[in-house]
Amino acid sequence: MPRNGDVQFTHANISRAHRELGYMPTTDLETGLSNFVKWYLDFYSPSTKNPASSSSSSSW
């Protein structure tokens, strides 16, 4: 049940962007969500790399 102030109905509609800008998405929703979840899990997962032992670090 929505609480006071919650938006009751939302939906994405790109018809205006298509009409005025010629925008056409190149990625379908399922693929986009899958790609986002993969990125999110990779980006926010604890890193197993030790930055101090990286060969790309420079000495000062």
TrEMBL record:
Belongs to the NAD(P)-dependent epimerase/dehydratase family. Keywords: Isomerase, NAD. Gene3D superfamilies: UDP-galactose 4-epimerase, domain 1. This is NAD(P)-binding domain-containing protein. One of its GO terms (molecular function) is isomerase activity. The keyword Isomerase applies. InterPro entries: NAD(P)-bd_dom_sf.
